[in-house]
């Protein structure tokens, strides 16, 4: 790397940022990562501090790395005043340093500084996530990293439900106890890393149920790992596309032959394509597949990153076998709906592939954002539409009647009709 980029190990601590409109290079703000023990691992950090004419950071970081006695300091509280001081320093050509924890480019201050238009040079320390996996002795190249700090913890919880390896940066009220409680019923092992890099460091392997009953030091790093009962569980293979929550390489709306099913009791691929599109599965969302049968709809939602619960009354239904066949992480709940829905966590979207109006009523009572209901019997369509509308959902629907190519003797082809199906979509305003 060149000194101008300011990212290589031998980069000049006086590195400059991009040129402004006059063609004059602006001095970069140096962002220094500090590990949990209060040390900056980068050799250029102390030189950058020695040259600084402004240092910004939390009180503990400013105490750990003292600036020159005559250097102004800004203790971070509200960020706006610090951004104003940094912008003024850049405009005046004065070297400035920002101190931050770990890798400040990982859910850290780098994003906010870049949004403010400041030219940056970043000298990271080991991130707390990397340190947590290292302390646990685990590889983590296939893991997803999310944060529950300062935002709704629901997406992080659903990512833990959906993916085999997830690291969560926690916050008070959104930590191992809360996420552990939300993982009840999912086969997971948790690693809770507290006070990383300090004399009080503690790394605990536990179950979701045990984590929910304990108090943990804030903040901490939580690792959620899918397990088949092995200890410690393996993080699992890296996807060939190197993206843990990417769209499946094999696509979706797969042919029925991609699933085990009995007596053709499976949502046909043409219907499934529309149903999955309407459900909008993605990482951070929870989808119920009610009356799952083969589980094809729920499995394809899981392959698109969603957490999925498949509810099926028949204990011999092939949903679990199909999920394993496709490498999808689907929680299977065996029981009769609507009773089987009672203790499940609230969904973001629900596919109702079986059951009467009592099942649909139980679903809408949980107020998911979207409900997709498929019906073959026309006399059930109007009651379902009225039920959804009475519950405050905007409803649209269509009948899908596909005709597939079929061979005829002599090399000719014909169209073979599949059974028509009505697809209703309820959207909550």
TrEMBL record:
Residues 44-210 form the Tetrapyrrole methylase domain. InterPro entries: 4pyrrol_Mease, 4pyrrol_Methylase_sf, 4pyrrole_Mease_sub1, 4pyrrole_Mease_sub2, CbiE, Cbl_synth_CobL, Cobalamin_biosynth_MTase, SAM-dependent_MTases_sf. Keywords: Cobalamin biosynthesis, Methyltransferase, S-adenosyl-L-methionine, Transferase. Residues 1-23 are annotated as: Disordered. SUPFAM superfamilies: S-adenosyl-L-methionine-dependent methyltransferases, Tetrapyrrole methylase. GO terms for molecular function: protein methyltransferase activity. Pathway: Cofactor biosynthesis; adenosylcobalamin biosynthesis. It comes from the Bacteria. GO terms for biological process: cobalamin biosynthetic process; methylation. It holds the Pfam family TP_methylase. This is Precorrin-6Y C5,15-methyltransferase (Decarboxylating). It comes from Micromonospora coxensis.
